[in-house]
Amino acid sequence: MGGGGGRGGRSRTQRRHFRQNRENVWKRSKSDPSSDAPNDNNTNDNGNGGNRAWEPFATQNPTFDEYYKEQGIVAPEEWDSFMGVLRSPLPAAFRINSSSQFYKDIRYQLENEFMKSLQAEDGIQVSEGSETGAIRPLPWYPENLAWHSNFSRMQLRKNQNLERFHEFLKLENEIGNITRQEAVSMVPPLFLDVSADHFVLDMCAAPGSKTFQLLEIVYHSSKPGSLPNGLVVANDLDVQRCNLLIHQTKRMCTANLIVTNHEAQHFPGCRSNRNRSNASGKLMEDPTISQLLFDRVLCDVPCSGDGTLRKAPDIWRKWNAGMGNGVHSLQVQIAMRGLNLLKVGGRMVYSTCSMNPVENEAVVSEILRKCGESVELVDVSNELPQLVRRPGLKKWKVRDKGVLLASYKDVSKYRRNVIVPSMFPSGRSYMEANENNIHVMEPEEKGENNGNGNGEDALHSTANSSTPADELEEEVSNFPLERCMRIMPHDQNTGAFFIAVFHKHSPLPAAQEKPHFQKEKLCSRNNEPLADVPTQVIEDSNGFEASLNDGTDGKIPEAASEVDLLDDEPDETVLGQDLPVASEEHNLEVAEAPGEKEADLNKGGGKRKLQIQGKWKGVDPVLFFKDEAIISSIRTFYGIDESFPLNGHLVARNLDNNHVKRIYYVSKSVKDVLELNFSVGQQLKIASIGLKMFERQTSREGSSAPCSFRISSEGLPVILPYITKQILLASPVDFKHLLQYKSIKYADFVDTEFSQKASDLQQGCCVVVMRKDGQAASDPIQVDESTIAIGCWRGKASLTVMVTAIDCQEMLERLSARAEIEKGSSVKDDDGPSKSEADEEKDKNDAEKKEDKDSIEMVIDG
Ligand SMILES: C[S@@+](CC[C@H](N)C(=O)[O-])C[C@H]1O[C@@H](n2cnc3c(N)ncnc32)[C@H](O)[C@@H]1O
After folding, report:
1. Which residue has the higher pLDDT, 453 or 366?
2. What pLDDT shows up at residue 758?
3. Can you give the residue ranges of the SAM-dependent MTase RsmB/NOP-type domain (predicted)?
């Protein structure tokens, strides 16, 4: 139950504030690589939108060309088309949030209004490479829920029809009904095969576009109106990025999410010792689950990011092969930890936004080597058949200091701490080579690099050296790496991505799970160790401490510290976004450490400081909220049905119940994990948990009300079916007036019966539900998926909405869009896309909605 409001109903100040807020979501510095504004920052916009000329980014890097030509990443005859697309701006893409109450309306509007009206626009030249129309659904994404747009930002601004589309995208994105996300980044969650009961771990989750998508899938596959049995744990090492993730997923309004802040390679297994006693020696109650294992793991690791060149063209300048080499070992460690935490029978997806085989096939091979038969690389060729992808490579080379190396035998002894055996197709180590009496030539013998060890600009293949021919044979992997998927930009006008799907058949070999005490290091984004923190014993899924048994002894190769890591979705719209206004204040759950000012971040070492303080200090505790008096006053005031469990499902982040401001609701699955976490000494560092359900009213009027806790708009949809008091039905016209004017005196409602009922309520928070067609004011309130409701405040003389301005705006726009469709202003149905079963189901629902809309419009117009 969202909110919605018309522009007409706002004050000028509100409108200006709102507009500024929305502008900021899209405003980006032209040199900001985080911008994903289509076609805006690296080309001359020559569409209808004018001739604003930007400095173009250099899109040349000879090292890049040499490296990828040598890897045979595309056939020689496609090289030019590959590079041509890589140098062109990335089309925009977005996803409809299928757990939104209005997702079918939004899809309908795109399919039947925008798709046709935009296409019909004469004179709009869509961007280069836009072969099939202005906007279109991505054919491989289920149920037309993901879309591709070819328009540049300038075009969107200039043309009236496009401007409307632009406004639509901005509003729906801010509300959370759509999420802008690069098309290829939507792929990994689809291969995870998630269902409503699954425990899902997103190991490197920030800024959260895939987490959001995973939650959508979990919710979409659960029974309407009930919380899913599953949950998503979204983890990221970086505190600031965790905050973006929290902000991003807040739009999802979910009680089934836990955000944690760990090094993924050391993610705790929380294995409970059932005989554990607490500090006072009292035997603790057994938690429902005894260790933290997951049905699904998404391992979307940090990478060099060269698959994002189209949206972050400054990578052209920065790119070098050391970027991939530098993250290889960390990627292996993270993936191995993911497999440790995966249940037998579970699925893990490994993905990067890099094309580099050292970060992709080499990591997959090393996983398979370590796991033996316990893990299978799954052939998913029959899944998402419309997605064009290429098989993984079976052979590749490693480049170091300007030299292409075909085998670990070719690695100079001075570089063996940086270039490790697992980077090569055979994965054979120097020791193994020696054991087999293979002579390993030192660089002096080969005459490489002339001893200066720095030849990044000079490309030498070892094939040109004096090494005997049999040692120069290219290594070819024995693993079925053709089952991996590489998505190439020129195949379907996207970015690049790599995806591999694993199935865990049995526990990992003992060597991968042996006890190992590991001092958890604090790392920066580029994995440079920052500081040692107190040793933490981390238990893995088998009760052992996490092992980094990957041949690196936990060392990060030194190249990592030179690498400027790039992330898959550095430009999620939460960056630079203003905070929501009105009653739903924005509140990041990770507390600032005392004295920690934003300005610190700009100083040298500021980020480091935040990292250290945010990660290990300054994070508010998560506690079960058990204050019986407050809980029962809330239950009584709103008449919350006993079948809705409150006890054990409420958490707060304040030790002092008298000062608890917000009470969060957690699902049964999250509750179980939280109980487990307490029983294992809080191994999980929780940055955010639960759905904000109740908020204390601190104003004088609020605190004098019989119940000082109001229901938050995020929490309302979950609790709505169980509320029996302080709730009333409003006619569509009064409901719309409330959204427009925000506060209405009792005498001013159109429906006098409603006025009377509203003024009869107890002072304090109440819920107003919009009456459906054919319903009378006195009818019992029945809640279902289509119910539209808002939280209000029953004051002395008036009823006031407690919904953000933007939610009011959105709800009003949704209601009027429904009405417009009904008026037949949109293009006729029979011109629409061919109808799948899902479409037919949608049509049925739309027809039902149509009836509702007719009645709304009649009343409003009348
Ligand atoms: C490719 S991005 C993830 C994008 C994300 N999955 C999404 O779809 O929005 C990689 C993330 O890994 C995080 N990261 C880097 N090193 C990490 C580590 N050792 N453990 C956990 N996260 C790490 C970075 O902060 C970054 O947010």
Report:
1. 366
2. 95
3. 82-505
